[in-house]
Design brief:
The chain is α/β, with parallel strands linked by helices. The protein folds into 3 domains: about 120 residues, K homology (KH) domain (GMP Synthetase, Chain A, domain 3), CATH 3.30.300; about 170 residues, P-loop containing nucleotide triphosphate hydrolases (Rossmann fold, 3-Layer(aba) Sandwich), CATH 3.40.50; about 170 residues, Rossmann fold (3-Layer(aba) Sandwich). It is built from 14 helices and 19 strands. The longest helix is centred in the middle third of the chain and has 16 residues. It is elongated, with a radius of gyration of 27 Å.
Length: about 500
């Protein structure tokens, strides 16, 4: 991908630097740099050339415990999660069954960091998709350090609430009772009736308006006091983040479950089962990875409605949080326009890309031949992305996924020294100069790599470089420096000579 973009941060501690022995001394580079003094440079140009910029890399997230939010469908669990987080992170809609997987978010209250886990509605005597959603809620409670049971105070304790209480007692985790939908003093009497559940004092709250949530959170943080003491790292810095993206029902959740070796994500033949991004730490290829299962993207976000709209937004957020994406394509079907849009979304976000052709076990030899030709034609703009033929159902060739991820991340973090870059461009322009336009030919003065992850290059020139020539520079960079698996962003800054 080639864009006219502003320069980014100049370095990253995990960037793969170009070898120091590039054959280019400091003197030629300094001479090219000094020649720029004859041109009108902006303050941001000087900052870029001097190697100034904001350091990249975020602090590792720490947590003092895990708090699971459980309850029947449509009692306001996701709304309460959003209230705890202070933002709309969980998908919320005025109908039951919107949340299906268990989804973890980092949270903070009263000086304490913890992880809050949103769950799907828990009910008994369910079958199919509903049973798997309830199973994920039970798993969330077993893995948590404490739980918040959310009950609709306007309805009171139901038989399902009583059964949920018995399940919580079997697990043996500390439980805080939240009587939700207490929007005013007149409803507090209804909340008091929840003492009958035998979980201690019910905390009247309004997840929608925030009423009483502070006292409830104080009790929840106190319940987490029995969690492992001291801040615990959720993810060490070396754990790379991988997002699984694609159209609905291409096998993203099945792939995550196969990698984890357990039913981590709810899987159902119904397309669009996953709504919230589901992440899990996976040991693969001798080390840990953070895999993020996302909702299937049906169409353009602006055209989606209801829960699917918010799920698409969460998927975009998951792509932003990831370092590399695995774009899954159903090999039993032809490459669709939506597959192309999803790849565009990933590359425009500046993430490393691996293309996974899933359901390869369903392919006969003749179909494989025509599919490979179709992929080469329809996905030609992403010919730089490694391709892996896999089967999430059987686990076929999943061992090759690690090599593709490593290759894409290496290209994503690769840095080319300024001397080698300018030597390369000098030879490139001498062999194939920019075409004349209106009797003028723009000249490249100097170039530098502004940042990595993804690689961003800034070229100073005497005139605008047209899109075909920028694409030619991008292809040449890939061939010469092995930028496999990563988009490349090229920014051109046109500068004129100073007037004497």
């Amino acid at each position: 991908m080639t864009e006219q973009t502003p320069a980014g941060a100049p370095n990253d501690s995990r960037a793969a630097s170009d070898p120091g022995a590039d054959g280019i001394g400091d003197e030629p580079t300094a001479a090219l740099r000094s020649a720029l003094d004859e041109y009108q440079l902006e303050p941001e140009d000087l900052a870029l050339l001097d190697g100034q910029g904001e350091p990249s890399g975020a602090e590792p997230v720490r947590s003092a415990g895990v708090l699971a939010i459980v309850g029947r469908p449509n009692v306001g669990k996701s709304t309460l999660v959003n209230r705890i987080l202070g933002r709309r992170a969980a998908v919320v809609q005025d109908q039951p069954g919107v949340t299906r997987d268990r989804v973890a978010y980092p949270a903070h209250w009263a000086g304490k960091d913890f992880t809050v886990v949103d769950t799907g509605g828990w009910e008994t005597a369910l079958a199919g998709l509903g049973a798997r959603v309830a199973e994920q809620a039970e798993v969330a409670v077993r893995l948590a350090d404490a739980a918040v049971l959310v009950v609709d105070a306007t309805v009171g304790a139901t038989d399902a609430d009583q059964q949920l209480v018995r399940m919580l007692r079997r697990v043996g985790k500390p439980v805080v009772l939240a009587a939700n939908k207490v929007d005013g003093p007149s409803v507090e009497a209804e909340a008091a009736r929840l003492w009958s559940l035998g979980l201690g004092e019910p905390h009247p709250v309004s997840a929608l308006h925030g009423r009483g949530t502070g006292d409830m959170l104080d009790a929840a943080v106190a319940a987490l006091a029995g969690a492992p003491s001291g801040p615990a790292l959720l993810d060490p810095p070396e754990v790379r983040r991988v997002a699984l993206i694609g159209r609905p029902n291409v096998g993203k959740s099945s792939l995550l479950n196969k990698l984890v070796g357990a039913e981590r994500s709810v899987v159902d033949p119904l397309a669009g089962t996953t709504r919230d991004p589901v992440d899990e730490l996976v040991h693969l290829g001798g080390r840990d990875w953070r895999f993020i299962d996302t909702a299937g993207i049906r169409r353009r976000v602006q055209r989606t409605q209801g829960a699917d709209f918010y799920a698409s937004l969460r998927t975009q957020g998951a792509i932003e949080r990831a370092e590399v994406v695995v774009a899954l394509i159903d090999s039993s079907q032809d490459v669709a326009e939506q597959d192309v849009r999803i790849l565009q979304m990933a590359s425009e976000a500046g993430r490393a890309v691996v293309i996974g052709l899933n359901k390869w076990d369903l392919m006969d030899p003749e179909r494989r031949f025509y599919l490979e030709r179709s992929v080469e034609q329809d996905l030609a703009p992403w010919s730089w992305a490694p391709r892996v033929n896999i089967s999430a159902l059987t686990g076929r060739r999943l061992d090759r996924l690690v090599g593709a991820l490593d290759q894409a991340l290496a290209g994503w973090g690769r840095r080319v020294s300024t001397g080698r870059l300018n030597s390369f461009l000098g030879q490139l322009v001498a062999a194939r100069p920019h075409p004349l336009r209106s009797g003028k030919q723009p000249r490249i003065l100097f170039a530098t790599q502004a940042s990595t992850e993804p690689p961003r290059f800034v070229i100073f020139a005497t005139g605008f470089l047209e899109a075909p020539y920028r694409r030619f520079i991008e292809r040449s960079l890939r061939e010469s420096f092995d930028f496999t698996g990563t988009p490349i962003q090229i920014s051109v800054r046109v500068r004129e000579r100073r007037r004497r």
